[in-house]
Known about the structure:
Elements: H1 7-12, H2 16-29, H3 31-41, E1 44-46, E2 51-53, H4 56-63, E3 69-70, H5 89-101, H6 107-123, E4 128-130, H7 131-136, H8 138-148, H9 155-171, H10 180-217, H11 229-235, H12 246-258, H13 261-277, H14 279-289, H15 295-307, E5 316-318, E6 322-324, E7 332-334, E8 339-342, H16 344-347, H17 382-397, E9 400-404, E10 420-424
Parallel strand pairs: 2-8
Antiparallel strand pairs: 1-2, 3-5, 4-10, 5-8, 6-7, 9-10
Helix pairs in contact: 2-3, 6-8, 6-17, 8-9, 9-10, 10-11, 10-12, 13-15, 13-17, 14-15, 15-17
Amino acid sequence: MNTSTSYLEQYDATADADKFPLVRRWMDTEPLPFFKELREKRPILVTPNCTLVTRFDDVREILNMPKVFTVQPYVPKMDNYLMAHDDDALHTREKSLMQCMLNRDDIPRVRVMVADIAREILDGANGQIEVVNHFCRMVPATLVQKYFGLTGADKSDLIEWSYWNQYDTFHNQPFDILPPELSQRIIDRHNETSKKLGEFITMLIGKRLLAVKAEKLTLSLIVRLEDDIVTRMLRTSYAKELDFDIKRLGVNAGGLLIGAIETTSQAVAQVLQYLLQHKEWLSAAKSAAQKDDPAEFDGIVWEALRFVPITSYLFRTTASDYTAAKGTHYETVLRAGTHVLPVTLSATFDERAFELPEKFIPHRNWYNYFHFGFGSHECLGRYVGMVMIPEMVRQVLLRQDIESKGDIDYKSGPFPELYQLSWVM
């Protein structure tokens, strides 16, 4: 930014056609100072393309009203998955059923599984690893097989299917202003991989259903399946009135994969880089990693992720006119059809909710973070993520004299693609 003028002065002096591209550049390259000025001077910024909402209370207000601020942009991307529904019967029913399957009592066992998978990968790496592809993506892909039960596909395929679904849904929207040819390529790859994922899920459900029936016929004396989420789903009898047939079961099984791999990979890679670049907190994290109780370590990870979240904003579309921040000096009428970006990165640096927000302070109020979203669309698998992400980081930092060989390479895309680490054997 030109330091002689403020962001908003530059914005106001810019032609309408160039306003949002300018905003987008600041969001991508210098978000914290830009969002700080918005919170102070124009907390709701209406641009020709979308509206940014930057204060903590206003962000939460929007995310708490799914019928007003809808996930309509998800609809063409998600094949009738529950996340594409706003506060309706299907969303409530299927999210409740899946939360039951993802039993929170499993979480200690899941953490042990993650630690074992991570340790095995790192032990075999001979003191150096390209951590994004061989660890950050590989650990959750392995957990998808072992805990979620999506067996029978190569891990590389699971990773690819998650990647293109995430890319198209969350990074190929109008406010991403991608070149048309790139946008179409992402859509094509998403469609291609979704077809393969659908074929895999059909095959998986067919084979597993036969195995579950065989298990029941032998009363588990001869056939005893491993306990995983897909098997739990198929072992369970659902009343007809629940409208959770084999097709809906398959859609939700695929959803377990899509949300697990790329988001986890990005969070882990960015937290590792942040800690390796901040020696004070790297030292504190290494010390905490040695303790049996992971609470201290986890608090450091979540605070690091506040500075380097996997996204700086969520996005919604307004279904009807609504006056946001009503009663304040900046109240704004958001018209129906408006793309609204609740800027969660800005909200987590709002001094109204975070004391000394620019300081790194572990063990802040967990409920004020937005690491897994907020409101009815909060991440279905957040409790799995709450142990998987810090445990993966912990296993890396347990290595002696861990260091990076350069910064993360994003290859001009939204996700970490390459990050070289080494340590002393």
